[in-house]
Amino acid sequence: MKRPQTGPAPRYELAIFDFDGTLADSFPFFVSVIDTLADRYSFKRVDAEEVEMLRGRSPRELMSHLGIAPWKLPAVAQGFMALMQERIEGIPLFDEVDTTLSYLTERGIVVALVSSNAHENVTRVLGTSCRHFSHFECGASIFGKASRLRRVLRRVGIAPTAAIYIGDQPTDHEAARSAGIAFGAVAWGYGTPEVLGRLAPEEEFASVPDLRRIAVSTV
């Protein structure tokens, strides 16, 4: 249940978070297993000097560069999640995630999560931070998050104009636009701030504590 507001209402009543690269610092793990996945699913290996360049690519551009056919993507994603499950103890949350989520919920913001990662992986990495979330939508296709965002909106009963999806990839921006909600781009994830900035997000967050601005009134 939302806590009563003691002052002017913030612009956003609902903050929906992506997981990988937004709450969980899983990019180093992704880099460490990409060649294992490449060998398993027959796509191009990634040279160390390519890593930063590939962060500037959209998921579709990355798939094209690596030679991942669209029909292979579900299997590659499942392989990634399975490897993460085996090594889950090495995936940390970004610093100050828990205190920032607590700050938001204490000020009446409903917090939810929409991720392409598996529910088990998400909840194990979040640990006690799961207590902040009212809804989890996990296992979404990388290109199919919009329907999950709309589902969260229906379940929470909050208008799209009062919601924001916070993520680190151009596909997160696409999903937010399709669902009719604002997009907040984070500077510390898989995608680069330069790429995300060109998408003209409603909000840009330079650090995890900067997410607290969600709870600030625009009045």
Overview of the structural elements:
With 219 residues, this protein is an alpha/beta fold. The protein has 2 domains: 14-25 and 91-215, Rossmann fold; 27-90. It is 40% helix and 11% strand. The protein contains 9 helices and 6 strands, in the order βαααααβαβαβαβαβ. The protein has a 6-stranded parallel beta sheet with strand order 3-2-1-4-5-6. β2, α6 and β3 form a beta-alpha-beta unit. α1 (27-41) packs across α4 (73-86) and α7 packs across α8. The model is unreliable at 1-5 (pLDDT under 50).
Topology, pairings included?
Elements: E1 14-17, H1 27-41, H2 51-55, H3 59-66, H4 73-86, H5 97-106, E2 110-114, H6 119-126, E3 135-137, H7 145-156, E4 163-167, H8 170-179, E5 182-186, H9 193-197, E6 203-205
Parallel strand pairs: 1-2, 1-4, 2-3, 4-5, 5-6
Q: How is the biggest beta sheet arranged?
A: 6 strands, parallel
| Sequence stretches where pLDDT stays below 50 over 5 or more residues | 1-5
The coarse overall form would be globular
User: What is the percentage of strand-forming residues?
Assistant: 5-15%
Content-based structural category? alpha/beta
Number of strands: 6
- Global mean pLDDT: 90
Keywords:
globular, disordered N terminus, 219 residues, 9 helices, Rossmann fold, single chain, alpha/beta, 2 domains, six-stranded parallel sheet
